[in-house]
Inverse folding.
């Protein structure tokens, strides 16, 4: 069809085909399953300080926020749970699970190339933690050790604490999410 020409059916109701397709889609669902109205929610409260240093289209933290899987924090807002940060003095472990379950888990979203620009001293957190040596699977830093994206960092901490179901929920939002688990078995 050329520019400016509209596709109209000759005689009859043009929306009829659309309603037939909707009816067929409903029939394709198994009888025991109803369409889900609500998306799955993480069992743990997740949060992120976003410093806007990375590409917004590739930012895994922002994507999780769009799915309402984590809450964005302001710089002056404190966080009472475990915070994954390069200024931590010890690695996250199973011992942190009670605090994560009660108060949550947060991550600092910044560029690895611009760490010196991040005001870590202003981020009020009770339990800053590091992650062990892991390999990134995200498309930006694939194969680089210790340069994880937000979703990789959160998922790694959750798995280390025994919350694998929530970690898989987060990684499932990304095409490459399964690769992170297989690279770091």
């Amino acid at each position: 069809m050329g520019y400016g020409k509209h596709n109209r059916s000759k005689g009859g109701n043009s929306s009829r085909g659309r309603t037939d397709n909707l009816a067929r889609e409903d029939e394709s669902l198994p009888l025991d399953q109803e369409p889900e109205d609500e998306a799955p929610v993480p069992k743990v409260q997740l949060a992120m300080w976003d410093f806007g240093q990375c590409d917004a289209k590739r930012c895994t933290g922002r994507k999780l926020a769009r799915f309402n899987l984590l809450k964005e924090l302001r710089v002056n807002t404190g966080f009472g749970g475990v915070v994954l940060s390069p200024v931590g003095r010890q690695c996250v472990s199973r011992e942190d699970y009670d605090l994560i379950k009660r108060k949550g888990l947060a991550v600092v979203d910044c560029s690895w190339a611009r760490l010196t620009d991040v005001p870590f001293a202003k981020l009020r957190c009770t339990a800053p933690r590091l992650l062990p040596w892991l390999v990134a699977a995200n498309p930006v830093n694939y194969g680089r050790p210790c340069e994880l994206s937000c979703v990789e960092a959160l998922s790694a901490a959750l798995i280390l604490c025994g919350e694998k179901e929530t970690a898989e929920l987060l990684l499932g939002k990304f095409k490459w999410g399964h690769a992170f688990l297989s690279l770091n078995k």
Observations:
- The first strand starts at residue 46 and ends at 50.
- The chain is about 30% helix and 15% strand.
- Residues 57 and 63 are 8 Å apart (CA to CA).
- The chain has one domain: 46-184.
